[in-house]
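Tokens in:
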């Protein structure tokens, strides 16, 4: 019994010592930089990344910089009270990591708007993998202090299959998330979940070489019903909370639906059927029809709350000519 107690004590001491050593190491040097620590958003200001890629539709060298607030775009104006301040908020489709500075859709929009009104200042606050829960945290923790007039939300894809509530962290959760080790472990789990939900960038995506998967109408309907019961109510509540927060804080929200190249048709560029591609244990038509359920909630709330809507999911042509991944 004494021996067992000694071994257990030694293991506990060794585990605690290892934890403390790793905690100190991560506070001095972070080998896995991320924008999220627990449920807090941490941005790198005045940062510069140069990405080397080998893709026929992308530049071989991509320059991505952040400004004095940690976002993509011009520095925060010195005369903010004289500017119309706009942020684009969303996941990787908004961040546009594989488009160089000046070539993201946020940059192109900013350039067009400035022609109409030089006082417009627009920044890209997109963060890869972020859902409506993350967007609300971003608003509360970072954007509110910058007093935006408008926020354009491109939402939907990162909310698919996520049954999470918009709730405040408990005192225990806040204490745990102060640990670099625990935050790292949580981010590893989140990254795994993101890959499982097919939310990662996929520069190797090629519809011509992707295997196909036939699914019956019954199988697809079953999946849609599951999302309708299990996940869509959460998405609606999170999006309502986002809209409500904006209105209470005199921010004008603008909603955008999430486009996908998938659908029930043949690709005009390659001739490939865009509804029969295998994506994990699903096919591309199933993924599109499920996403459209989330887009429908965005459309419904835009009408109900009288919010401007850009229905990008319907306006974007389903043609791989315009996509480097799905």
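Residues out:
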């Amino acid at each position: 019994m004494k021996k067992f107690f000694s071994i257990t004590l030694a293991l506990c001491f060794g585990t605690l010592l290892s934890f403390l050593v790793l905690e100190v190491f991560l506070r001095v040097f972070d080998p896995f930089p991320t924008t999220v620590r627990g449920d807090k958003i941490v941005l790198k200001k005045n940062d510069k990344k140069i990405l080397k890629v080998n893709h026929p539709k992308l530049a071989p060298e991509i320059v991505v910089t952040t400004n004095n607030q940690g976002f993509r775009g011009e520095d925060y104006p010195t005369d903010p009270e004289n500017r119309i301040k706009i942020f684009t908020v969303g996941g990787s489709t908004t961040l546009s990591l594989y488009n160089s500075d000046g070539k993201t859709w946020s940059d192109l929009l900013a350039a067009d708007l400035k022609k109409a009104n030089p006082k417009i200042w627009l920044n890209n606050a997109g963060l890869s993998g972020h859902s409506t829960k993350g967007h609300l945290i971003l608003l509360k923790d970072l954007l509110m202090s910058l007093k935006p007039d408008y926020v354009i939300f491109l939402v939907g894809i990162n909310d698919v299959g996520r049954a999470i509530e918009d709730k405040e962290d408990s005192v225990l959760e806040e204490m745990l998330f102060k640990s670099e080790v625990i935050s790292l472990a949580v981010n590893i789990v989140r990254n795994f979940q993101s890959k499982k939900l097919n939310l990662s960038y996929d520069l190797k995506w090629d519809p011509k070489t992707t295997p196909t998967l036939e699914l019956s109408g019954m199988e697809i309907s079953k999946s849609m019903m599951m999302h309708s019961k299990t996940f869509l109510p959460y998405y609606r509540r999170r999006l309502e909370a986002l809209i409500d927060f904006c209105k209470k804080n005199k921010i004008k929200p603008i909603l955008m639906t999430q486009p996908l190249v998938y659908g029930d048709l043949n690709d005009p560029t390659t001739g490939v059927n865009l509804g029969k591609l295998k994506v994990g244990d699903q096919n591309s038509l199933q993924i599109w029809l499920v996403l459209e359920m989330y887009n429908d909630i965005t459309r419904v709330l835009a009408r109900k709350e009288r919010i401007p809507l850009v229905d990008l999911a319907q306006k974007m042509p389903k043609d791989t000519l315009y996509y480097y991944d799905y």
